[in-house]
Amino acid sequence: MSILKKLLLVLSVVPMAVNYPFFPPTCYSKALSMAAELSQMAADLKIGYETGHCMAHMPDLYLDIHNACVMHKIRDYISMVEHLRLRRCAYTKEVRKLEVTLRQLFIILGQKCHGDLVFTIYDCAALERPYYPYYPY
Q: Which residues form a coiled coil (predicted)?
C-alpha cells in the first residue's frame, strides 16, 4: 500500500514540476502576450453573435508593442469602446473585458515597462494591418 501512495505522490508532483515556469515573466513578455491576446479578443468580438452587430464598425485592432504609435492606438480604441455605451453590446462581459484589458496594457506600457521597451519603428499605418513577426509580407 505504501508503494501505491508513493507512486501517486510522484505522479501528482511530476506534472507540476514540468509545467512550472522556471523564470518569472518579464514586463516585455507580459506586454507581448497581452497585445496578442487583445488583438485576438477584438477580432472575436467583431464576429461574435452578441457583439458583432455593434462592433462591426470598429477598426481592426493590431497591436505591435515595438511600434511607437501603439499608445495612441490603444487610447483611441479605448475611447471607441467607451462610446459603445449607446448600444446594447457595450454592456456584455466580453466588451467590458476588452476595455479593462486594454486599460491594463496601456498602464503596463506607459508606467510599468516604460524603461524596458524599445520602440523600433514609428509607423502608425502599420498598426492598421496584421503583424506577423515570423512571416514576411
A: none
Residue-wise pLDDT tens digits, 68-84: 888 899 999 999 988 88
Query: Rounded CA gap, 23 and 37, in Å?
Result: 21
pTM for the whole structure: 0.73
Domain ranges of the chain: 26-128
Cβ neighbours around 62 below 10 Å, total: 20
Cα angle for residues 57, 45, 130 (degrees, 5° grid): 75
C-alpha cell recorded at residue 79: 475611447
CB of 62 within 8 A of CB of 129?
A: yes
CA pair distance 36, 50, nearest whole angstrom: 22
- In percent, the amount of the chain with pLDDT more than 70 equals 75
Asked if residue 46 lies in contact with residue 56, where contact means CB atoms within 8 angstroms, the answer is yes
Q: Could you count the other beta carbons within 10 Å of the beta carbon of residue 13?
A: 10
